[in-house]
Amino acid sequence: MKGGEQEFRFDTDHEKIFRQESSFSYLTGVEEPGCFLTIELETGKSVLFVPDLPMEYAVWMGVVYPKSYYEEKYGVEEVLFVDDIPAYFKEKNPNPIFINRGVNTDSGHTTMEATFDGIDQYKVDYERLFGDIGECRVIKTPQELEVMRYVAKISSEAHKQVMRKMQPGMMEYQLESLFLHECYARGGARCVAYTCICGAGHSGATLHYGRNNKRVEDDEMCLFDMGCEYQCYTSDITCSYPSNGKFSDKMKVIYNAVLACVKAVSKEVKPGAYWPDLHRLSERTMCEELKKAGLLQGDVDNMMKHFIGSSLQPHGLGHLMGLDVHDIGGYPGGAKRSAEPGLRNLRCGRHLEEGMVLTIEPGCYFVDAVLDPLLANPETARFFNQEMLATYRGFGGVRIE
Amino acid sequence: MKGGEQEFRFDTDHEKIFRQESSFSYLTGVEEPGCFLTIELETGKSVLFVPDLPMEYAVWMGVVYPKSYYEEKYGVEEVLFVDDIPAYFKEKNPNPIFINRGVNTDSGHTTMEATFDGIDQYKVDYERLFGDIGECRVIKTPQELEVMRYVAKISSEAHKQVMRKMQPGMMEYQLESLFLHECYARGGARCVAYTCICGAGHSGATLHYGRNNKRVEDDEMCLFDMGCEYQCYTSDITCSYPSNGKFSDKMKVIYNAVLACVKAVSKEVKPGAYWPDLHRLSERTMCEELKKAGLLQGDVDNMMKHFIGSSLQPHGLGHLMGLDVHDIGGYPGGAKRSAEPGLRNLRCGRHLEEGMVLTIEPGCYFVDAVLDPLLANPETARFFNQEMLATYRGFGGVRIE
Ligand SMILES: [Mn+2]
Ligand SMILES: [Mn+2]
Question: Which intervals hold domain Aminopeptidase P N-terminal (chains A, B) (predicted)?
Answer without folding.
Answer: 1-108
